[in-house]
Design brief:
191 residues, alpha/beta, 5-stranded parallel sheet, 4-stranded mixed sheet, 8 helices, globular
């Protein structure tokens, strides 16, 4: 895989996110993969590589313009045409909101302000339940969520979509299992 601005993820990246190494084992041929908080795109690129050969689709949500530009260049360099890029936040309700750059790190953008000195960026927020039907996709197989503290908001805005399709949900979170409010889901975390 070619990459601009980033090298191919190494085994060190797999150690930081062990599930990354096994992503292809969990994807379904012809499936749909959503990445909510796509950053520069290691997950969308890996998913697109697998799904390109199998007729699947990747939808990547990345609200921060600089990250989205890097992701777009990475996808273009690899020739992927099965990835849809979306530049807004997913949350519980639609409307304008502040996206906060916590701790002066672009990888810590969130709808949740976790740092008194965080700089805001005006952003549009939409619930996945309103957005997903616009994609005109008949399935949803796997969702990765990395939204730096706004997981509960994303889940609240995706209840109907998740209930309908029952995708695998991979989430980086500090929320307790009891707070996730995912009926009929079981939580698993690596040892």
């Amino acid at each position: 895989i070619k990459a601009l601005a980033a090298r191919r993820p190494s085994r060190a990246a797999d150690a930081l996110e062990p599930e990354f190494e096994h992503l292809e084992e969990l994807l379904v041929p012809g499936g749909v993969f959503l990445d909510i908080g796509a950053n520069t795109g290691i997950y969308p690129i890996k998913a697109a590589k697998f799904l390109t050969a199998n007729g699947g689709v990747v939808v990547a949500y990345e609200p921060f313009p600089e990250m989205l530009a890097t992701l777009s260049r990475n996808l273009y360099a690899n020739g992927f045409t099965n990835v849809r890029l979306r530049s807004f936040c997913l949350g519980e309700t639609g409307g304008a909101a502040e996206l906060w750059m916590n701790f002066h790190r672009p990888t810590s953008f969130s709808l949740v302000r976790r740092d008194e000195k965080a700089a805001p960026l005006s952003m549009l927020v939409l619930p996945l339940d309103e957005v997903f039907p616009l994609e005109r996709l008949e399935r949803l197989d796997y969702v990765k969520i990395d939204v730096e503290g706004a997981e509960a908001q994303v889940l609240a805005g995706a209840r109907a979509t998740f209930k309908r399709f029952r995708p695998i949900i991979q989430m980086e979170t500090e929320i307790a299992d009891s707070q996730l409010n995912l009926p009929d889901y079981c939580c698993w975390q690596p040892p």
